[in-house]
Amino acid sequence: MRFLLITLIVHNGDRSPTERLREVVDNAVLAEELGFDGFGVFQTEIAPVLRAEIPSRPFPGGVS
């Protein structure tokens, strides 16, 4: 069995986007230190979230 820690990067204005992103990265590092098999970030369109423009890259095999 594998265990994955998942978070949602909600930004409700109580701290700066930089501080919130640092907290998410710190949680990812902690998950690794605790032995989780992975760390994921959940995306939603209904809550104010931190957004990053990620360039579109094709996956191996031509699926993008």
TrEMBL record:
CDD domains, A to Z: Flavin_utilizing_monoxygenases
Protein name: LLM class flavin-dependent oxidoreductase
Organism from which the protein derives: Nonomuraea roseoviolacea subsp. carminata
